[in-house]
Amino acid sequence: MIMRKNLLLVSLTVVMLLTSCSKNESDALVSKVYFTNWNQCEALNTLKAYVEDVTDPKSANFIKEEDRIATFDMDGTFLAELYPTYFEYNLLEYRALDDPTYCDKAPEDVREAALDIRNFVRKGISLPSHFDMKHAHAAAKAYAGMTLAEFDKYVKAYAALPANGFIGMTYGEGIYKPMLDVFEYLKDKGFTYYVVSGSDRFICRSLVDPYHIIQPNRVIGMDVMLNSSEQGDEDGVNYTMGKEEYLVRTDSLLIKNLKTNKVRQISQEIGKVPVLSFGNSSGDAAMHNYCLSNKQYRTAVFMLVADDDARDHASLAEAAKREAKWREAGYTVISMKNDFKTIYGPGIQKVDFVFPE
C-alpha cells in the first residue's frame, strides 16, 4: 500500500514537472519580443497575421508542423548583394585577377568572366547577355581541385575582409538584421526554412555558418560535380571511395539554381511544396509561384525591395520598377527603407565604393 502511494506520488510529481516545463516554455514564447529591428508596417503585419493564423490549431487554415516549409533566397533577401555586386561575383573577380596564388594560372575564360565583373562594377559596363551561366561555368573552373574544407576556408577568409562601400562591416557581416528576426520567429513557430539561392551551395553554407540560423542540409544552391580525391576520370557508380579519401570540387557545372531550376531543386531536395517564400528578384518569381500553387494550404510570399540609398547602395529608379512589378504579381513587398528600423545594425555606415588603380 505504501509502495503504491509512493509510486502515485512520483507519477504526480513527474506530471507536474512536465506540465510546469511545458507551461514555462509556452509562457516564454508568448512573452518573447520579436522583430526588434523592424518598424511597424504592412509587410510585417501581413507576415504575423499569416503565421498566427496557420499555426493556430483552431483555424481552418492550420498547417501541420511538418508541412510548415519556408524558402528564402539569399543574395538581396537576407544577405547584402550591393557591395558592389553579388558576393560570389566579387569572389571570382578577386580569385582570377588578384589572388597571387591563382591569378597567373587562371584559364582565359575565367579571367574574361572576372574582367566582365570588374568592368561592370568599376566602369558601369553592362554584363554580357546570360552572364549568370558564363559566371557559373567560370566559377566551376576557378575553384576546381579544392577540397570542401579548403573552399570553406577560402570563402570565409574573403568574407572576413572589409566590405567595399561600408565602414564597420566585413562582407560576411552583411546580413540584414530584420531578416534574422524573421528566422527566429519562424523557428519558434515550428517552421522549417531553407536557403534556395542562385549562388554556389558551398558559398551559401560558408556564409550562413557563423550565424547558426540554417543547417547545411537546408541549403540549396548552384552545384558543381564533386569527386573523391583518388577517383580520377572513373565514374562514381564504378568507383568505391576509400575511408582515407576526401571530396574535391571539379570544373563540371551541374546546375545554376535560378528561376524554374529553383522549383526543380525544391521538389527534388525538400519533397514538399513550400507555404511561405521570400525573395527579391525575378530569379525568385518561379519559386514564389510554386509556393502559391500549393492547393493544400494557405500560402504567403514576400519580395524585398532595395530602396534605401542612405543606409545601403540602391537604385531608386530600379527599386520603384521592381516594387510595381511585385505588387502587380500579388506578392507582399518589403521596403528596406520604410520597414527596416536598421539594416546591418548600429555603427555601420554606407560610403562610396573605392577601387584600386
Number of strands: 9
Tell me the span between the first and last alpha carbons: 90 Å
Overall pLDDT confidence: 93
Q: Figure out the total of helices.
A: 12
What would you call the shape?
Answer: globular
Question: Rg from C-alpha positions?
Answer: 23 Å
- Percentage of β-strand residues: 5-15%
Walk across the major sheet and give the strand order.
5-4-3-1-6-7-8
Class by helix and strand content? Answer: alpha/beta
Query: Could you list the spans in which at least 5 consecutive residues all have pLDDT below 50?
Result: none
Residue share in helix: 40-55%
Q: Your description of this structure?
A:
The protein has twelve helices and nine strands. The longest helix is centred in the first third of the chain and has 30 residues. It is globular and about 60 Å long. The mean pLDDT is 93.
Write a compact overview of the structure shown:
The protein has helices at 2-31, 42-54, 87-97, 108-123, 131-142, 148-159, 177-188, 201-208, 260-269, 285-292, 316-329, 336-339; strands at 69-72, 166-167, 192-200, 219-228, 247-255, 276-279, 300-305, 332-335, 349-350. With 357 residues, it is α/β, with parallel strands linked by helices.
Q: Key terms for this structure?
A:
9 strands, alpha/beta, globular, 12 helices, 357 residues, two-stranded antiparallel ribbon
How are the elements arranged and paired?
Elements: H1 2-31, H2 42-54, E1 69-72, H3 87-97, H4 108-123, H5 131-142, H6 148-159, E2 166-167, H7 177-188, E3 192-200, H8 201-208, E4 219-228, E5 247-255, H9 260-269, E6 276-279, H10 285-292, E7 300-305, H11 316-329, E8 332-335, H12 336-339, E9 349-350
Parallel strand pairs: 1-3, 1-6, 3-4, 6-7, 7-8
Antiparallel strand pairs: 2-9, 4-5
